[in-house]
Amino acid sequence: MTLRFELLHSNGAARCARLHLPHGVVETPAFMPVGTYGTVKAMAPEELEALGAQIVLGNTCHLHFRPGSELIRDLGGLHRFMSWDAPILTDSGGFQVFSLDGLRKISEEGVLFASPINGDRLMLTPEESMHIQNVLAADIVMVFDECTPYWVGTRDDTKGAPSAGRPATVAEAGASMRRSLRWAQRSRAEFDRVQPADQRNALFGIVQGGMFEALRTESLAGLREIGFDGYAIGGLSVGEPKEDMLRILAHTAPRLPENAPRYLMGVGTPEDLLASAATGIDMFDCVLPTRNARNGWLFTQHGDIKIRNSRYRDDVRPLDTACSCHTCQNFSRAYLHHLQRVNEILGARLNTLHNLHYYLDLMRQMRVAISAQCFSEFRTAVESARAEGPD
Q1: CA 291 to CA 380: how far, in whole Å?
Q2: 234 membership: H or E segment, kind and range
Q3: Sheet strand arrangement including 24-28
Q4: Which long-range contacts (CB under 8 A, 24 or more apart) does 255-258 make?
Q5: What's the helix, strand, coil split of the chain in %, to 5?
Q6: What span, in angstroms and rounded, lies between the C-alpha atoms of 138 and 119?
Q7: What is the dihedral of CA 7, 9, 15, 16, to 10 degrees?
Q8: Is 118 exposed, middle or buried (0-12, 13-18, 19+ CB in 10 A)?
Q9: Strand order in the sheet with 34-35
């Protein structure tokens, strides 16, 4: 069974849909918690299910490094390995390679890079990425692409911080995007070759092109010619100004095929999700709710709370009086402040539970608002309330 896309409601450009996948149905707009190593940090599978998570994201590169994709295959695939019966999307490894700036070399064949585990020299190609993802047996597989950087520059030899830099030029972004298109064609061919007849999962293309509308249009045209089950927008939230991200999103999202799922990769804040859904995006992933939770940065209806701040030391109120999550129903800000200050594992768990509940419930409310034809009003109300800031 491959992906079946069912468009249910539209409200302006915003839309609700169903993705029918081998391991279940996903209602959109949908947020995918990030499970880098086959686990969403601090959460058990049954907790994710109770929170309303419909699909999670696995990290191709990291799972291939540890524990190893062949081991996961021998143990029954990623679903069985992590005891998750719902859909999984695996990224291609392109972004992880992008993040190893200074430790990798890109060629037409693929990317040669040093393993972050032991320093071994490794080559990741479109064919190898498809092989790894086939072994992991995810419901949705991403093509191998080059994530075009926003900043191009040198690095300081002593501190490892950028010492000089400039935005990528149209020529640099164009060369990167066209390489990604050639890799997308190779990914498509290898995916079709290695997929067993009884394991027909979905393959998504990724639109690249940096901050240049014409390149984004060219990338999408090339991907549509190849043909994919869904289409993602990559290369955003990589250091560009917010106004540039929104400009490229506004240009690209409406041009994605209407009869296929639309996925915005690696974005973002609650306000980003609302703005993106308004352009017709169906699927999101981001480490923000889980990473921020571990750092004590919590999302609420009235803005973000930095729970480590001393003002919460004796605050007996829940994080969010309107939130129905287990954390808000049972624990005070003072207790969460204490856990964060003493670096208790329970604090990371309770914070993560709350943040994921906030994100997943925001998706649920989006679906309700789109179905009721009041998404614009809903978005305005959410953004206004969050702009007030916590009391």
Answers
A1: 26
A2: none
A3: 4-11, 14-21, 24-28
A4: 255/216, 255/217, 255/220, 256/207, 256/220, 256/231, 256/280, 257/224, 257/231, 258/7
A5: 40, 20, 40
A6: 28
A7: -70
A8: exposed
A9: 30-32, 283-285, 262-264, 230-233, 202-207, 140-142, 88-90, 56-58, 34-35
Enclosing H/E stretch for 15? strand 14-21
Q: Name the region of 42 (left: φ>0; alpha: ψ -120 to 50; beta: rest).
A: left
Cα–Cα distances in angstroms (integers) from residue 144 to residues 25, 127, 189, 271, 345, in the given order: 25, 8, 12, 29, 36
Picking from 273, 267, 265, 233, the residue whose alpha carbon sits closest to that of residue 251 is 233
Question: Phi and psi at residue 167, in whole multiples of 5°?
Answer: -65, 145
pTM greater than the 0.90 cutoff: yes
Preceding omega of 268 cis (within 30 degrees of 0): yes
85 is catalytic: no
Report which residue type is found at 10. S
What does each of the 391 residues of the chain score in pLDDT, given as a tens digit?
579 999 999 999 999 999 999 999 999 999 999 999 999 999 999 999 999 999 999 999 989 989 999 999 999 999 999 999 999 999 998 777 767 666 788 999 999 987 777 888 889 999 999 999 999 999 999 999 999 889 987 544 444 454 568 999 999 999 999 999 999 999 999 999 998 777 779 999 999 999 999 999 999 999 999 999 999 999 999 999 999 999 999 999 999 999 999 999 999 999 999 999 999 999 999 999 999 999 999 999 999 999 999 999 999 999 999 999 999 999 999 999 999 999 999 999 999 999 999 999 999 999 999 999 999 999 999 999 999 999 8
- Active-site pick, 145, 229, 272, 285: 285
Helices (H), the chain: 45-51, 60-65, 69-74, 78-82, 94-98, 126-136, 170-194, 213-226, 242-252, 270-277, 288-294, 326-330, 333-341, 345-371, 375-388
Task: Out of 91, 229, 315, 320, pick the active-site residue.
Answer: 91
| 91 among known catalytic residues | yes
Closest CA to 231 of 254, 247, 198: 254
Q: Are 246 and 273 in contact (CB under 8 A)?
A: no
Backbone dihedral angles phi then psi of residue 142, each to the nearest 5 degrees = -105, 140
